[in-house]
Amino acid sequence: MARSGARAAAMQLIYERLMGGSGQDTLGVLIDFTPEEEDSRYINTVVEGVAEHVNELDALIASYSPSREIDRIARVDLCILRVALYEMRYCADTPESVAINEAVELAKRFSEPASARFINGVLGAISRSEQPAQENGAENG
Question: What is the CATH number of the domain that holds 120?
């Protein structure tokens, strides 16, 4: 399975937990595939990593979402943002641009049309703000 399918599965399990479910052993009910071992490891890593870092991720989302308070962000959008930010911060094998693009694609698939722009804006702003100074042209050669 492609990583994008595993990413969608992780987002759905995170959403299930947010909505009061267990977020465990329901993968077959949520989506139409049996993940391979590598996909299962990725899904578990992301779901558990988001749970472990949820306060940090939400604080970051809140600070870069001036137009929407965290409790006013659609729950599915919040889960997509959490997955993308977790990957951006803790998955060294996932380039930030890929995490952002995949989040936008998840928003197009699972949310409303305006969500893709909102998610892209928040993640793009976070990515730009965290670039090293020399990449932003601040280095004086």
Answer: 1.10.940.10
